[in-house]
Amino acid sequence: MRKKLMVEKIEKRNERLWLISNDSPFSLEHAKPKNHMLVDSDNIAFIYILETEEDFIYVTIPYEHWTDMKQVLTESIPVFLQSGMAELELTNFKEELAYLIENIDGNANYGEQMEQAVKEIFLT
């Protein structure tokens, strides 16, 4: 089964980048990072995948937060998810994001809007 969690804001605190989702309808107690990201071209978003024994949890990072997320590529700071009281490091985030950005640039398979959004934020 697949569950979804939407990032509502991003903050930099204590040399970490925090992806914050305040209203999780489920527990992240047993969630572990899968070290993998996907692209949601329809909604212009990146998705970091968490997993539990029964589920995958898609942490969606919409376009409106990409400018804040860009610093991960230049500053090499760790990325954490905060949802309610749960805090979890999103390992391999920088590498996955860099790979996707490189792959999307000039690739029509992701759709014109997604390619343009990536260029606008990450490749200027």
TrEMBL record:
Q: Which Pfam families match?
A: UPF0738
The text of the family note is:
Belongs to the UPF0738 family.
Q: What is this protein called?
A: UPF0738 protein BCV53_07455
The record lists the organism as Parageobacillus thermoglucosidasius
